[in-house]
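Every protein is a chain of amino acids, and every chain bends into a shape of its own. The protein below has been through that process, and both of its lines are reproduced in full.
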Amino acid sequence: MALRLKVTPEEFSFATQDGWVDGIIKGRRGLWVYVELGTDEEYIPKVNDDPKTEYRFFRCCNIYYAKTQEQLEIEDFEANEYNVTVIIYC
């Protein structure tokens, strides 16, 4: 199962394989993440996807969790997870 992250349009457009993004986990209000992106692969749309939203798919990502945006900015992470599949959207 892939983790879905909402990112800014700027971060979405600049996201690259082996790059990074900051975002918020979909469905979990207030859970911020810093993601070291892995392999950029083709996104295959799902039936319930919003047609007005853009999506990108990355495999083998490292994720660092923070409770607030302030914690994220100073890299005060609560937990981390490795080798995760991530879908970013804006």
